[in-house]
Write a structure and sequence with these properties.
Radius of gyration: 31 Å
Shape: elongated
Distance between the termini: 107 Å
Helix content: 55-70%
Number of strands: 12
CATH class of the largest domain: Alpha Beta
CATH superfamily of the largest domain: Response regulator
Number of helices: 11
């Protein structure tokens, strides 16, 4: 009797423990399931997070940068990402541009595409971006910063050489030329000027003066007026952007001089002037491609994809011989 009773108690205990064990197992499974779902939701949310690219150029007060902007926004539309294009009041407003870079880092954009006015001044901000795990693509102007994702832009030195070759062909050995350049210390203008100087010297041209005009049309005119007073016999002029070239052209026209004038950028205003028989030529880069490919590279970097370390967008000479075709291309880009 006692034995039977003890057997019943033992059986009940075993059954009870089995039930508790099963319930505990089910409870543990239910507790882990929401965690898996939550993880999947977080992963899905991360995948759907919109990509935001900040494009910071040197200024937005010239046709050149407006075309860069058009290319950047077109890339954003094609790639389905948010693109904001920003720029300071002038290419010489270096601290203003650096503040813009820092502001976009604070806003935690997905990636930056920057055309630094003074690369050395921008490097501390680039270091901040790196610390925040924000990839940086440099466009138009390169910098000695090892952590950049890529440089997207023109071979400015080779473009300067094209300008030198054009002037040498037009003037011949002994021709007297002047160079107007952008802000001192801007590597873009350093490279353009140095490329032209190399060829001009090799071809026997005489460089009578080199003056900065800070990439501005008004200053280009003023600087050229002073040069013409000091050197009234010059025969050729190279400006390292079209804004300065067009300003210099005004001074040349006012002085009633016949001078071969070459700019750099292939801007709409420069092309109009070439078509009108005023400006002689412009070394055209592709600002649209710089903006487009810059955003393209930034998006790839934001997604962790491989990006080429250097993307060259090329240069060519625009003169009266091909200006009509180039104008048509620009009008299509700007929607004119």
């Amino acid at each position: 009797m006692v034995k039977a009773k003890w057997f019943k108690v033992l059986s009940f205990t075993v059954v009870f423990l089995l039930v508790v064990s099963l319930l505990a197992g089910c409870g543990g499974q239910k507790a882990s399931q929401p965690s898996d779902n939550q993880q999947n939701q977080q992963q899905s949310s991360g995948e759907q997070k919109s990509v935001k690219i900040a494009v910071i150029v040197k200024a937005l007060n010239s046709d050149y940068w407006k075309i860069v902007e058009a290319g950047a926004k077109a890339a954003g539309k094609d790639l389905g990402v948010d693109v904001e294009v920003l720029g300071p009041s002038a290419e010489t407003a270096v601290s203003e541009q650096v503040s813009m870079i820092e502001d976009q880092i604070t806003k935690k954009v997905s990636a930056l595409a920057v055309a630094p006015s003074q690369p050395a001044s921008a490097i501390p901000a680039f270091d901040q971006a790196k610390a925040a795990k924000i990839p940086v693509v440099l466009i138009d102007t390169d910098a000695q910063w090892p952590d950049k994702v890529s440089f997207v832009g023109t071979g400015n030195y080779n473009g300067g050489k094209l300008a030198g070759e054009f002037l040498a062909e037009k003037l011949g050995k002994g021709g007297k030329v002047v160079i107007l350049r952008g802000a001192m210390g801007d590597p873009t203008h350093d490279e353009r000027a140095n490329g032209a100087i190399e060829v001009m010297k090799a071809k026997g041209l005489e460089i009578v003066d080199i003056q900065p005009a800070n990439s501005e049309r008004g200053l280009g005119m003023t600087v050229m007026e002073n040069i013409l007073q000091a050197h009234p016999d010059i025969q050729g002029m190279f400006a390292t952007n079209d804004e300065m070239a067009l300003g210099a052209l005004r001074a040349i026209q006012a002085a009633k001089k016949q001078i071969i004038t070459v700019g750099f950028d292939g801007s709409p205003d420069a092309l109009k002037s070439i078509a009108a028989g005023e400006l002689t030529a412009s070394i055209a880069q592709s600002p649209y491609n710089i903006g487009y490919k810059g955003v393209e590279a930034a998006v790839k970097a934001a997604k962790g994809e491989q990006v080429d370390k250097r993307i060259d967008t090329g240069t060519s000479v625009i003169s009266k011989d091909n200006v009509a075709e180039e104008q048509k291309k620009l009008n299509e880009i700007l929607g004119k």
